[in-house]
Amino acid sequence: MKLNFDKKNFFLIGLLLLLGLSPLLWFQNKMLIMGGDFVIPLNPRSIFFQELPLWFSHLNAGFPSYFLTFTFPFNLFWAFLDSIGFSLITIEKLWFVFLFILPGLAMYYLLSVLFLEKKIFIPRLIASIFYMFNPVVLAVNPPIFTSYLAVGITPLLLGLLIRGLEKKEEQNRYVFLFGLTSFLTIPIAANPPMFAVVWLVLIGYLFFHFIFIFKKRIQTIFFSIKVFGVFLLLNAWWLIGFISSLGGAQLSTAKVGEWMDWTTVNASFLNIFRLIGSWAWTSSAFGSPYASYADLYSHPLFVLATFIVPILAFSALFFKRRKKNLFFFFLLLFLAIFLAKGSHTPLGLVNKWLFFNAPYFWLFRGPWEKFSFIVGLAYSVLSCFAISEILEYLRKKRSKIKLLASDIFIPLILVGIFIAAYPIFSGDIIRGNPTIGYLPGQKVSLPSYWFEMSDRVKKQKIDSRLLLSPMNPGLYIHYEWGYQGVDPAVRLLSAPLVIAGNGSYIIRQNTQGFISVIYKDLLQDPPGNLIKIASLFNINSILQRNDFDWKNFGSFNGGSPEYIKGKLAEEGIGLKETFGKLDYYALENKYFLPHFYTPKNVIISSQDLNALLEIVSQPDYDVRSAIYFNDQKTISDILFRDRSIFYNSNESAKENISNLPVVEFKKIDPTKYRIIIHGAKDNFPLIFSESFHSSWKAYIAKNYKVSKAESNDLAGYKILDGNLDNQAAADELKIFIENGEITTLGDLKEKNIKHTKWENNKEVFDYNEKYKIGFVSKDFQGTIQNDNLPNGNFWDTWPEKPLSEKSHIVANGYANSWLIEPDKICAENKKACVKNADGGYDFEMIVEFWPQRLLYIGLFISGVALLACFVCFIYIWIRKKKQEKENKNI
Amino acid sequence: MEKTIIKIFDLKKTSSIVVTWAKAKKWWILTLIVVGIFIIWQLGAIPGLLWLLFLSFLVFEWDNRIIALFALGFLVSCPFLLIFKKEVLAEQSAVYAYYFLVITVILQLIEYTVHPKKFSANEKDNNI
Q1: Given the DSSP bridges, would you call strands A601-605 and A625-628 parallel, antiparallel or unpaired?
Q2: Tell me, what's the pLDDT at A102?
Q3: Looking at the partner chain, which of A307, A321, A330 has a beta carbon nearest the beta carbon of B105?
Q4: Beta-carbon neighbour count of residue A873 at 10 Å?
Q5: Model confidence over A84-132: pLDDT tens digits?
Q6: Residue A191 near residue A147, CB atoms below 8 Å
Q7: Phi, psi at A505, each rounded to 5°
Q8: Which of the residues A123, A163, A342, A789 could staple to A367 if both were Cys, CB 3.0 to 4.6 A apart?
Q9: Which residues of B touch A323 (CB under 8 A)?
Q10: CB pairs below 8 Å between A and B: how many?
Q11: DSSP class per residue in A106-145
């Protein structure tokens, strides 16, 4: 039977869309909704490009990134609307409405597939409304969109799966639609357990169909293969990179058992039946309850309201005339209830055994949040069936009482649903300012000076890092203007940042040790060696946040504003600018170590990172140094072949390196850098101040063509706005050119920077800045950043072999370094080098994070798969139309 | 179901039906009693009784909607127990509702597997 989309369907869908506008009730006084685990992309376009590559360089010297999963639809949605002039608040409203409507429409579709009869319109509508408005939404709430998308997408995917299995002749269409719809699951992958739950439901249905639908087993197998195949091909572009990025990450699951105990403290069967099993319902922080509405649910009216749908769902057990696939939803119900209760009694030990022994079950450490929406899904389907059966029974009998009952039955259910979902309508689902305690609400007005700071940072071209002070107390931070949650600075400021913690539950060990040393020194009294340590981390500026609530919430260990101000003054770090309550400090240029640099001094220590402070505090310590805590033999062999290095367990050895080359580089993107080495004579280490990872590879460009800039090209050269401190002046640039330290000034054609500014939570056009020559930095410790170097092609290094991993070692306790041997390189690759008159070599290198290729390969696979699917789809459609025409003629 | 209820209240007729049935199934009844005693001894009274109930309905193919009735009954009692502040009883009632739900679903699945024709597989005949 064909799905009917007649007028009644459109009316009912329209009603669902109208109800889906409920999130608009949550907004007030032009405030953004954010806080807790949820921070919106406050700088959407910048975030879109930051999170696209497989290396996230924006935070703490970078790490392999799975943030690609946020690209579609989340980041794209925000970036696109931002680019066409929508304010952050408007975008957030539209996003929430989309998230909220999706479950209703998805459930309506699933129910349409399961129950094809026209007279079942009203039960479908009621069940869809219930799925949109039920207490689970309060816990798995829309702001945590990675979880909430799972709520919305699961019924839709399930419906497509069921339809494809039932309609053999249209199977390919549903395979293709499933593949396309699966794009909406991409952000859910950032929450692996939630992603797993969605797929467990889908795979569970396929398994159920295989076991219990006897005549269609072969068909089920073929269909499953097609569905998974198309899913994998269409999603290859993010799947390949995502899986590769998870290597080396360590989930903070040290105490899974304890975590499960406290997250399921309220997950009794009683509360699960009512869908109010979240730990947050009876928990509080800083004296304020997380769920201010929780007490309402003890009121008799709310008690009765929350039992209406569960009772209807259970009553479905009485009706025998049912489709076989409804058994799946009964199984789903009792399994989901059992899993959602976690370690709560009864049989908590069984759940615990599963979590500790079943493969990867420890991922579901918050079982209520992961499985509760499945209970809601099963309730919706079963209650739809039960309502239709009850209505049919009441209407068949001609007694007045039964007819009256059938008239009030539906309104009664609706009233119950809306009462149970009251906090969604009242807006209490979003925590407001507390009436007791001092936990900040989730309705936030970000001070304008933060946006001014963002504008300032955006103008800066120098490739460097900004240290945020004071130290973040943990994953959550607190601002006195009423915010508590993940650091919003990470989602607003476009400059690479250094913060304590890295803003997620995934721990990256590489740089946490070094960053701890930075903050330890910031808090140390008397003045330490902050400048020297900061320079090793490519930091050239510090942002002191005086609006940080350092008194409450355990933040006091970070230091008061007065203390930090005094400490930075003692360190000799000058205050550059003030934006409201934000103080922007800059290190002097003589202390700045660029992203790539060649050290004058190599310090080898047999100790570990704990010795860093002691090493840099030595009176003869020079900023342009590199410290090696390991691999002493490799360094000795390559760098100091003819000298023996004496060191023992208590001393560090220091060696000077002479005849250092000049380094010219450009950051093409977060995964690729082009470096030109000028005048390399002896072996030298090249330090790349990015978190060490064996997937960073250095390549020698096979054909280096000499290209020298001309002094005549400097006509029209200008210092770009906001770059006076770091950009080379015209006379400095002239000297670089004369010394052969600059390869190119670009194509010298007129270019434009479109400057924007923030007004009323919206990025608006400010002014155009025309220029011909891109940013060229001053000479910082023998390194010049030249943004005029060509980007090249993304496949440049693909056929090439990288430098030996033996020469790729950890420097400064966290960074990448390659030990470069110019004589050897130039002997092996004659075309790669140009010998200068003084005997030094010029050659080109590319440093690349090679897994980025997986993204490109994945994009190609997915692109071809998408094209093939479209072609098949069109072919099937044309063939169907031809057949219909032929049948008509016959 | 209605005929069955009427029959139960006709005691003389009911007792003769039960005796006849018991004589026909005496070996099954004996086996179940032995198994039931063993389970009660090993797992305790309530789990044992629940298992006995499940096995009885499975073996004798009684209408599993009776178990569903128990599930629904316990579930319906929960809100009223909560309203009258009997939280502990409400919690216990919810636990039994869950157990009876599980028993019903498993029995119905087994019934469907063994007698699929009892559940109309024809979409045209079926309202659902």
Answers
A1: parallel
A2: 94
A3: A330
A4: 16
A5: 989 999 999 999 999 999 999 999 999 999 987 666 888 999 999 999 9
A6: yes
A7: -80, -5
A8: A342
A9: 123, 126, 128
A10: 105
A11: HHHHHHHHH---GGGHHHHHHHHHHHHSSTHHHHS-TTSH
